[in-house]
Amino acid sequence: MTTVLSFVVVIGILILVHELGHFLVARWMGVGVERFSIGFGPVLLRWRGKETEYCLSAIPMGGYVKMMGEESPLEGGGTATVDPAKSFSLKPLAARFLIVFAGPGMNFVLAAAIFAVVFMIVGRPVLPSTLGRIKADGPAAQAGLRTGDRVTAVDGVPVTNWDDLLGAIQASGGETRQIAFSRDGREQRVALTPARTKVRDVFGDEREVWDIGAGPFAPARIGEIQPGYPAAKVGLRGGDVVVAVDGNAVLSWDEMAEAIHKRAGKPMELTIERAGRSLTVSVVPQAFKERGPSGQEIEIGRIGIGPAAVSYLRLNPIQAVWHGSARTWDITVLTARGLWKLVTRQLPASTIGGPIQIAVVAGEQAKQGLLSLAFFTAVISVNLALLNLLPVPILDGGHLFFFVIEGILGRPLSLRKREVAQQVGLFLLVLLMVFAVYNDLTRIDFLRFFR
Length: 451
Known about the structure:
Largest sheet: 6 strands, antiparallel
Shape: globular
Oligomer: single chain
Helix content: 40-55%
Radius of gyration: 26 Å
Number of strands: 20
Distance between the termini: 5 Å
């Protein structure tokens, strides 16, 4: 039930905000609104305001705002006489464009607002500026830095976390920087010259960065233990810190996770620290199928653990809005790249997910806490905004595309042409939804949807 309830809450919020964008801007532009509906199908609740009928319908897979004077053959738009001052179709092109764009626009705003509020109340997750594993012959090693050194400043500018350190190094352009660090309680300084290197992003594409040859030191402290998984069966507990895997020291959660992922179905030993004592446990990671960056199916091992809460840096309102907007922009760019790779077939169509996958992931995030569910809602809000902006008839992007054509031609396309285009768009949208659900059913344990 957690999965179902999480899905309804997340989707309900996204639809409400989206349709509220259309509604508020329509009213601002003087357009009359006949109906404001959340959901489709049979109406569960309805109430009538002075001018607008508000509805809550049974199928929570969308919604709509029915405006006066709106030509919408797919929604039964009639030819009844309306007040010309409140007619959508008689408003200037710019006003109509803003009304339609306001839906996706509000989803972008929602994502930025969620991030900003979380950054103000809880804080932005950060890692300490303490050096973890040092690469042999890398810039940090050559400068004499060691594991456990805590960087405090770069060229005299204070550094409080790993993001600050990375930002200063990337801004260096490869030039030598003076690094202040603390070791055994003593402040020291060294000159460090970053090296140009290539890394791969989530899509497997390479990009160049400046590297210091060291990662962050973030102990692999266990937070959540999932019942029924290998970790629970061998007695691991929340608060345990994994310090080694098969005798090899791990200095971060990522190092530990990578080692576990490679040992699917094979026994391995974890050395943990618990209440000042060192223990060794043997565990066999459970094999799971997952899709890699390029869409290929790979097998990884999991033992059913989640990380303990990292440190959070609380921001003031101005900083929170800035970082929230920046995070939203990063997710927008990443999502747009993913859509483009799907269109150009650089990613296989099997990576497309539908409502079942959203529901399953929403349920998993809800079990990890409100913070995880909030971040997930923000990410899905950006996805919804971009999908609605695609130039597909019946979507907001299709209407905006018609407006662009109207601006170029100086007149709108004929009603018949728009009607045919919307029917084609609806057909394509239904096909896409069926295909997405098919993908969900082929890769997801369907029973998890009801847990």
